[in-house]
From TrEMBL:
PANTHER family in UniProt: TRNA N6-ADENOSINE THREONYLCARBAMOYLTRANSFERASE, TRNA N6-ADENOSINE THREONYLCARBAMOYLTRANSFERASE, MITOCHONDRIAL
Taxon lineage: Bacteria, Pseudomonadati, Pseudomonadota, Alphaproteobacteria, Hyphomicrobiales
Cofactor binding, per record: Binds 1 Fe(2+) ion per subunit.
Similarity section: Belongs to the KAE1 / TsaD family.
Binding-site positions, Fe cation: H115, H119, D311
UniProt: substrate binding residues: L137, V138, S139, G140, G141, D170, G183, E187, N283
Organism: Jiella flava
Name of this chain's protein: tRNA N6-adenosine threonylcarbamoyltransferase
Amino acid sequence: PTILGIETSCDETAAAVVRRGVDGRAIILSNVVLSQIAEHQAFGGVVPEIAARAHVEALDGIIRAALDDADLGLGAVDAIAATIGPGLVGGLLVGAMTGKVIAAARGLPFIGVNHLEGHALSPRLSDGLAYPYLLLLVSGGHSQILLVSGLGDYERWGSTIDDALGEAFDKTAKLLSLPHPGGPNVEAMAAKGDATRFALPRPMKGEARLDFSFSGLKTALRLVAEAHAPLVDQDVADLCASFQRAAAETVADRIRRALARFRERFPEIAQPVLGVAGGVGANADIRAALKAECESAGARLVAPPAALCADNGAMIAYAGLERVEAGRTDPLDVAVRSRWPLDEKSAPLVGHGR
Ligand code: ATP
Ligand code: MG
Ligand code: FE
């Protein structure tokens, strides 16, 4: 089948067309992403109302561009998938309504996709990973370690008890007066810095449970920054590098334990696989730390290209594709949900916001 996917849960307006090829692999026919960074930059973060308006203005054109890039008309599309949660309600409503209207007008099935499922399945989209695998989801709103056992079958092994890792990058950037969004800007500054100059904590390191905590790291960074004020460019670069190294080592420590637990659970799997998803997954230092960890554990790291780590429509179309193939489409009155944990066992309620 050929699926049109729509993503509007945060500050990217995105649409894509993904198809299952005859050889069984998924093919990304198009993947169009319009970032709203410029609209939000002056506010140092995403403003929900501005985001929703921008989605309204952009979405029709983005969908048309996705179909044009794929060289397809709507007649060649078999189902419409749109993110219905979690995320900012205004944006979710725009994407869900648009998807539902196209589905209704064309008589096509509709799939309301969990944004986090899109992230979780993206290593299958990029590399055709088989279930089960371990997933590190590190994005603007989430930091989780998940066991992905099948479509809709997710076990959360750990999550952040305070800030998400992307959020910690964004707050670090703000503190150091770097532009929003923080991740890429912190990474660029870190490349010019000395990661050993400032001693920052590795929160939760050595603890048995698989949770994350990043607010202590952020606070430690703030105290060091204040102690060295006024900061010159080299200080900022060194702070970014030290922060990024602390983040990478913290994540690697959690993953070491998660891989050990995966081995206990699946002794028959000779080479466990760790998939990475979410915008922070694009960070080269973090990828390198994960790669080293996987190598020493005899595991394989699958980190999709940066464009598939960050928010995009292809991951939503792909989640829709797997759901269509499993016969799990949704009624047109399926509701958007601002909160929607991936490991929730019950199916989403129909017709109610919850
Ligand atoms: P969620 O998926 O949890 O709802 P989101 O969709 O906003 O949140 P993503 O778009 O997946 O999150 O990721 C955005 C986050 O990734 C931002 O916090 C951004 O700073 C961070 N990020 C992007 N690129 C990098 C990078 N190179 N290094 C570190 N962080 C990065
Ligand atoms: Mg985003
Ligand atoms: Fe996301």
